[in-house]
Amino acid sequence: MTEHISIQDPEDYAPEDLMRLTEILFSPLSGVAELERACMTLAHLPTPEAQDLLQRFTSSPRAAEVSWLECAVEEGQQVLMEPTNELEEREFLTLKVIQELIDESSELELDLSQKRVSIEKAEIRLGALQALAAVGKYDPIAVLGVSGGIDCDRNQLDELAEEIALKEAMVEHLRNSITTPRYRNTDPVFIRHVHWDA
Questions:
Q1: Please, how many CA atoms are within 13 Å of residue 66, restricted to the half-sphere of its CB?
Q2: I need a surface site. Which of 80, 97, 124, 157 has the fewest CB within 10 A?
Q3: How many CA atoms lie within 13 A of 142 on its CB side?
Q4: CA 74, 78, 83: angle at the middle one, nearest 5?
Q5: What is the mean pLDDT of residues 168-194?
Q6: Does 161 score more than 90 pLDDT?
């Protein structure tokens, strides 16, 4: 594997440099060391053009020759997303909050779905108990207790739906509040693997 390099300054790279890297990546004559060096450089060059080029290379027949290419693409995306000022730091953190809200909403959706199935099963049991109570084989007062439990579960359904709607509204508001162009269209799932100390 080629030597790891630090983050590159986009000012040091002219369009001709990207053309040279493109030629290296897509030339059948380039050696593996050249491919690796080009991929390492692109992974550490925080420009959309560099990351697009690296992504395009993943579809190349020679992509398999760079065993760590997938890691380079991920690292390149992370380098591109790095905040460079206070506003970007705040909006980058906003993406993390959006991702967390989406995850929480998904968990609540699962809870809601499970609760619905539980209620349907309870209603089936209730029907059987009501039939047994009608012929004197079950206590009618106990049927009322089961029915009351189902009503409580239905109220929980409403509460879960309200909580999901609130989280979805928060996500929409936060998405609309982002002004940094490269963050506006970023899938917040990308942020899942970014960890903060706080």
A1: 30
A2: 124
A3: 13
A4: 175
A5: 88
A6: yes
Nearest partner of 103 among 167, 162, 157, judged by Cα:
167
115 lies in the same domain as 43: no
Mean pLDDT in residue range 87-101: 94
Measured CA to CA, the distance from residue 70 to residue 63 in angstroms comes to 9
Number of domains in the chain: 2
Residues 6+ apart with CB under 8 A from 48: 80, 182
Residues 65 and 150 in one domain: no
- Which of 64, 81, 98 finishes a domain? 81
Give me the count of residues in the chain.
Answer: 198
Q: What are phi and psi of 61, to 5 degrees?
A: -60, -20
Question: Do 33 and 74 reside in the same domain of the chain?
Answer: yes
For tokens 């099963």, what's the residue? 121
Q: What is the extent of the structural domain holding 76?
A: 10-81
Angle, alpha carbons 21-25-28 (nearest 5°): 130
What pTM was estimated for this model as a whole? 0.71
Do residues 70 and 64 lie in contact, with contact meaning Cβ atoms separated by under 8 Å? no
